[in-house]
Amino acid sequence: MNKLTISCCFIMLMLSACTEKVADITKNTDQSQVGVMTSPAGNWEAKEQELSSQNKLDVQSDLSELNLIINGMNTHAIALREEIVNAANDSVKIKEILVRNDNVQQEGLQHLKGLSLKSAEVQRIRLLLIENLLIIQQMYKLSEQPDFDLSRPNNELKKLSLRSQDLQQSIGNQLDHLNSEFK
Predict the structure, then answer these.
(1) Do 99 and 121 meet the contact criterion of CB atoms below 8 Å apart?
(2) In whole angstroms, how far apart are CA 160 and each of 4, 53, 65, 124?
(3) 119 forms bridges with which residues in the sheet?
(4) Interhelix angle for 91-114 vs 3-15, to 10°?
(5) Rounded to an integer, what distance in angstroms lies between the CA atom of residue 105 and that of residue 102?
(6) CB 115 within 8 A of CB 67
(7) Could you tell me what percentage of the chain is helix, strand and coil, using 3-state DSSP and rounding each to the nearest 5?
(8) 109 FRET partner, CA 20 to 30 A, in 3, 64, 115, 135?
(9) What is the pLDDT of residues 51-88, one digit of tens each?
(10) Backbone Cα Rg of the chain
């Protein structure tokens, strides 16, 4: 596998916030609202038993806010994927893209933490998204190591990549289920 292919795979893993189905659900949403719907305080540390359960209005409202953030992150991810393909094997450009990706991920993490959710169902998904973003952050930090070689990823990066993929699959399945159950 050549370095470009590996680079593209690595970037796609790092940039994926969730399934493309979620992006389709919210593709007509005004992206300027992404930052508006969050507060610095949020309730991301709330226990599920402190939140409502099976309350259709709460779930719908929470999904709407969560989907805005996810869709915004996915929009950035698509643009960065294009850039990584165009960068080919230019390691300087790829590094710049990785830095910008990290900034997008950090901003997304803050938006997720800033949400004030009401439903336990959406809270579970938010916590998985936060966990995934923290894993992606670990992957990014590994890529900054001086001895890092993308053509020969170490075991830690491989494990983190697999865990991130598993989380993304779980997040996508849960979002699909909630979006269909609470239409």
Answers:
(1) no
(2) 20, 32, 28, 20
(3) 52
(4) 10
(5) 5
(6) no
(7) 70, 0, 25
(8) 3
(9) 999 999 999 999 999 999 999 998 998 998 889 888 87
(10) 17
Maximum distance among all alpha carbons in the chain?
A: 51
What is the C-alpha separation between 161 and 23, in angstroms, rounded?
A: 22
What region, left, alpha or beta, does residue 164 occupy, with left being phi > 0 and alpha being psi -120 to 50 degrees? alpha
Q: Which residues contact 40 (CB under 8 A, 6 or more apart)?
A: 114
What 3-state class would DSSP assign to 183?
Answer: coil
CA distance 71 to 67: 6
Report how far residue 99's alpha carbon sits from residue 96's, in angstroms, rounded to the nearest whole number.
5
Contact 55, 118 (CB under 8 A): yes
The separation between CA 131 and the C-alpha centre of its own chain, rounded to angstroms, equals 9
* Degrees to nearest 5, angle at CA 92 with 90 and 94: 70
- Give the H/E segment covering residue 72: helix 56-87
Give the global pTM: 0.80
pLDDT tens string 86-108:
887 787 888 888 889 899 999 99
Say how far apart CA 53 and CA 93 lie, in whole Å: 46
